[in-house]
C-alpha cells in the first residue's frame, strides 16, 4: 500500500455507478477503503447493502460493509429501479457474498473508523446523505477527523430526476443541506461534470476485451446501465459514470476543473425541492465576472469539467490491474 494513500469511507447505494466507484477505489493505490457504508436510494437498504457486500466480496476486499438508514431523515424513500433494476444491480450474475454484514450500523462504523484514524479521513458519499448528516449532527467532535467530503450529488444547472434536482440530493434534501452547511471542505461531483464523464459503447467493449473477471463484470454492469441512458439520454452518446467521479477526483484531481462556490439545498420548493443552489465565489466565476458572494463564504469546490479520455483511461487502467 502506498504510504500516501488517502483513508476513505465509502457511503453508497449500489447501484451500477456506485459499484464501479467501489471497484475504482479498491484498485487505486492512492486510496485506502476503511469502511463501506450503505444508504437507501437506488434501491431499498436491504438490496443496496447486499449489493455492496457482493461487490466487495467479488473484489476480495474484506473491509466492513455496514447498513445505513432505511429511509431519509424526514421523507419517504424514492428508489430508482428504472435505472438500476429490481435488484439495484441488475446485469451480471454476482456470487453471494463470502463475508457477513458488519454487526455495526453505518453510523457506528463511521464513528469507529474516524475515532481510530490517526490521519484525516475522506468521506465519499455516492448516494443520499442521510448517514453522514446524522453523524455530523450528533458527533460534531468527529468533524476534526474528516479531511474532506468528496460527494456525488447536485448540479449547478438542472437535474436528472426532476428538472431542478439530481437524484441523490432529492432523496434526502434536508440531510444534504446539513452536509453542505457543515463547514467541512467539500468537493461536489454534480451533473455538471458527471454528464461529461461518459462511457461509450466502444469503451465498454474495450473494458470487456481486457478479459479479466472484474473487467468483464464491469462491462456487464455497463451493458445494463446503458439501456436506460440509450432510451432517455440518447444525446449523451453513452452513459454518465456519476459516482466514479467522486473517486477519480481523489486519484487524479488534475483531470478535473473546479470552481469555488456557495452551495445550499432547496428543501421547500414547489417545483425545485432538492435543487442545489450554486452561487459562484467572486473572482472565479464564469469568464472572470464577479459573482454574488465573497470567497470566504464559498463552501464547495464544484467540479465542472473532466478530461473524458483521461477519465476512461483511469478506469481502464484500474480494470487492467485487477483480477
Ligand atoms: C446518482 O443517482 C443514482 O442513481 C446514481 O447511483 C448516482 O449516485 C446520479 O444522479
Ligand atoms: Ca449512487
What do you see in this structure?
- This protein is of the alpha/beta class and 323 residues long.
- Helices cover 37% and strands 18% of the residues.
- The chain is built from twelve helices and eleven strands.
- It has helices at residues 16-27, 45-58, 81-84, 106-116, 130-138, 167-171, 173-180, 191-194, 201-208, 213-232, 242-251, 308-321; strands spanning 6-12, 31-38, 65-66, 121-125, 146-152, 186-189, 198-199, 239-240, 256-265, 276-280, 300-306.
- A nine-stranded mixed sheet has the order 3-2-1-4-5-6-11-9-10, sandwiched between helices. Strands 7-8 form a two-stranded antiparallel ribbon.
- Strand 2 (31-38), helix 2 (45-58) and strand 3 (65-66) form a beta-alpha-beta unit.
- Beta-D-ribofuranose binds at residues 15, 17-18, 42, 80, 83, 126-127, 152, 160, 166-168, 242-243.
Approximate shape: globular
Rg, rounded, reads 18 Å
- Report the end-to-end length measured between terminal Cα atoms: 17 Å
Ligand kinds? beta-D-ribofuranose, calcium ion
Question: In terms of topology, how is this protein built?
Answer:
Blueprint: E1 6-12, H1 16-27, E2 31-38, H2 45-58, E3 65-66, H3 81-84, H4 106-116, E4 121-125, H5 130-138, E5 146-152, H6 167-171, H7 173-180, E6 186-189, H8 191-194, E7 198-199, H9 201-208, H10 213-232, E8 239-240, H11 242-251, E9 256-265, E10 276-280, E11 300-306, H12 308-321
The protein binds beta-D-ribofuranose and calcium ion.
Beta-D-ribofuranose binds at residues 15, 17-18, 42, 80, 83, 126-127, 152, 160, 166-168, 242-243.
Amino acid at each position: 500500500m502506498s504510504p500516501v494513500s488517502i483513508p476513505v469511507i465509502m457511503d453508497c447505494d449500489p447501484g451500477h455507478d456506485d459499484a464501479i466507484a467501489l471497484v475504482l477505489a479498491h484498485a487505486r493505490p492512492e486510496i485506502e477503503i476503511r469502511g463501506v457504508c450503505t444508504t437507501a436510494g437506488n434501491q431499498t437498504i436491504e438490496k443496496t447493502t447486499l449489493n455492496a457486500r457482493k461487490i466487495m466480496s467479488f473484489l476480495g476486499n474484506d473491509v466492513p460493509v455496514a447498513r445505513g438508514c432505511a429511509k431519509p431523515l424526514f421523507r419517504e424513500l424514492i428508489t430508482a429501479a428504472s435505472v438500476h433494476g429490481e435488484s439495484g444491480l441488475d446485469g451480471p450474475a454476482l456470487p453471494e457474498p463470502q463475508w457477513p454484514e458488519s454487526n455495526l450500523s453505518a453510523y457506528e462504523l463511521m464513528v469507529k473508523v474516524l475515532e481510530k484514524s490517526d490521519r484525516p479521513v475522506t468521506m465519499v458519499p455516492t448516494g443520499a446523505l442521510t448517514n453522514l448528516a446524522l453523524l455530523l449532527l450528533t458527533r460534531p467532535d468527529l468533524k476534526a477527523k474528516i479531511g474532506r467530503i468528496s460527494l456525488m450529488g447536485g448540479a449547478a444547472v438542472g437535474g436528472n430526476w426532476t428538472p431542478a434536482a439530481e437524484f441523490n440530493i432529492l432523496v434526502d434534501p434536508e440531510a444534504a443541506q446539513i452536509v453542505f452547511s457543515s463547514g467541512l471542505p467539500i468537493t461536489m461531483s454534480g451533473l455538471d461534470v458527471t454528464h461529461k464523464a461518459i462511457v461509450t459503447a466502444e469503451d465498454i467493449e474495450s473494458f470487456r476485451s481486457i478479459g479479466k473477471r472484474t473487467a468483464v463484470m464491469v462491462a456487464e454492469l455497463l451493458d445494463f446501465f446503458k439501456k436506460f441512458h440509450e432510451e432517455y439520454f440518447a444525446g449523451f452518446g453513452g452513459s454518465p459514470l456519476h459516482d466514479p467521479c467522486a473517486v477519480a477526483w481523489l486519484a487524479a484531481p488534475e483531470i478535473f476543473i473546479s470552481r469555488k462556490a456557495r452551495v445550499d439545498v432547496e428543501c421547500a420548493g414547489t417545483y425545485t425541492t432538492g435543487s442545489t443552489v450554486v452561487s459562484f465565489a467572486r473572482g472565479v466565476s464564469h469568464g472572470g465576472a464577479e459573482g454574488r458572494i465573497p470567497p470566504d463564504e464559498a463552501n464547495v469546490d464544484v467540479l465542472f469539467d473532466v478530461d473524458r479520455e483521461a477519465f476512461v483511461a483511469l478506469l481502464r487502467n484500474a480494470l487492467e490491474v485487477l483480477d
